[in-house]
Specification:
The complex is a heterodimer of chains A (102) and B (252).
Chain A lengths: L1 H22 L8 H24 E2 L2 E2 L3 H14 L4 H17 L3
Antiparallel strand pairs in A: 1-2
Chain B lengths: L3 H12 L10 H16 L2 H10 L4 H10 L3 H12 L4 H12 L1 H13 L6 H4 L5 H8 L4 H33 L10 H10 L6 H16 L8 H6 L2 H15 L7
The chains are: A mainly alpha (102), B mainly alpha (252).
Chain lengths: 102, 252
């Protein structure tokens, strides 16, 4: 049930902001500071989420195979690999390290 | 979801010998749009696998792709739920990630010039990829074709691959053994990397990582991410102060 609540709230909220952009008169959100903040908000959230989903195990911080996987993804990104290849690199290296008992 | 394929599309487009009025054949717009739609649409696999691996049912996973349809928010939500966050903090993180779509909508609204009655239907497709393709087009007709073809192809494929990914994850059982729990963070990193253009973005990212990890042991699940979002206003504020303090000197 909790999961359906989360899905419902997220769906409504995400649709509302999409529609708001199309409906509000141009200029309402065009203040430079608001634009800057809107551009930086995803940077903060994505960085925190990347770190947490790599190093968190519940409330504890751990260093496990996922870190190696993320390192592989970073290398793939530096090499300008396509999106799916970046994800595949992380998955394969994580699985590999785990299979070797890491 | 990343917009990088479009960048290549744009360079191709400028290579076309242009006349005074930069016309672009409909077929070329459709080709660019399909390129992005298909490439990114395929990454629904990663979402379907991650979502099912996080413990969501097939129906819940598909509902997210159908109803939320903005990749980063979807990954964030299933990650937060898997970590044991309550539904509202989990939804809040996903929502804040989706706020950028409002700013895409602002730009698109001017370019598409849609009748008000059509906007509620177009709204679901206002995301990174459709915006990137639409903004790269030279005329209103091309903008509309680009937006529609990217939106339609991406929506159909993203939902189809979500379903297949979730089915696949259920078939193989323990997704962690296959390293599939690393797909989520890799997706976030791939989305983040092109955003780290200046020292401001890097400072925000660095502070957010510190807050997100540092607060993890002391705050309830899902809350540290929301606190980490404060890195954005904090860095902006610090930057404003530094510029204010160095007023007139204009160093760097």
């Amino acid at each position: 049930m909790n999961i359906w609540i989360a899905i419902g709230v997220t769906a409504l909220g995400c649709y509302a902001v999409k529609l708001a952009g199309l409906l509000v008169p141009a200029g309402a959100l065009e203040k430079p500071l608001v634009r800057r903040l809107a551009a930086l908000l995803p940077v903060a959230l994505l960085a925190a989420l990347t770190a947490q989903q790599t190093f968190a195990d519940g409330p504890a911080l751990v260093l496990d195979a996922r870190a190696a996987g993320l390192g592989a993804a970073a290398v793939a990104l530096v090499l300008r690999a396509p999106f799916l290849l970046v994800v595949a690199a992380a998955v394969v290296v994580t699985a590999g390290v785990r299979a070797m008992g890491g | 979801m990343t917009a990088s394929p479009t960048v290549r599309g744009v360079t191709q487009q400028t290579a076309v010998p242009d006349t005074n009025v930069p016309e672009k054949p409909d077929a070329a717009v459709v080709r660019d749009a399909l390129g992005v739609g298909v490439a990114v649409g395929l990454s629904g696999f990663a979402f379907g696998v991650t979502s099912a691996g996080s413990g969501l049912t097939l129906l819940q996973t598909c509902a997210l792709s159908l109803l939320v349809f903005t990749g980063a928010s979807q990954f964030a939500l299933v990650g937060a739920l898997a970590a044991g966050g309550n539904p509202f903090t989990a939804a809040a993180g996903a929502f804040f990630l989706g706020v950028r779509n409002a700013f895409y909508g602002l730009r698109l609204s001017q370019l598409l010039a849609l009748p008000r009655a059509v906007r509620p239907f177009a709204a679901q497709w206002v995301i990174d990829e459709t915006t990137a393709v639409a903004l790269a087009q030279p005329t209103r007709r091309a903008v509309r074709i680009g937006f529609t073809v990217t939106g339609l192809s991406l929506y159909v494929l993203w939902n189809l691959t979500t379903l297949l990914g979730a089915l696949g994850a259920e078939a193989i059982g323990d997704t962690d053994a296959w390293g599939l729990d690393a797909a989520g963070p890799a997706v976030f990193l791939a989305l983040l990397a092109p955003m780290l253009k200046t020292s401001t973005e890097r400072a925000v990212a660095g502070l957010a990582v510190l807050l997100g990890l540092g607060l993890l042991p002391v705050l309830p699940a899902g809350v540290p991410v929301l606190v980490a979002a404060l890195a954005a206003p904090v860095v902006l504020w610090a930057e404003g102060r530094r510029k204010g303090g160095a007023a007139g000197e204009e160093e760097r």
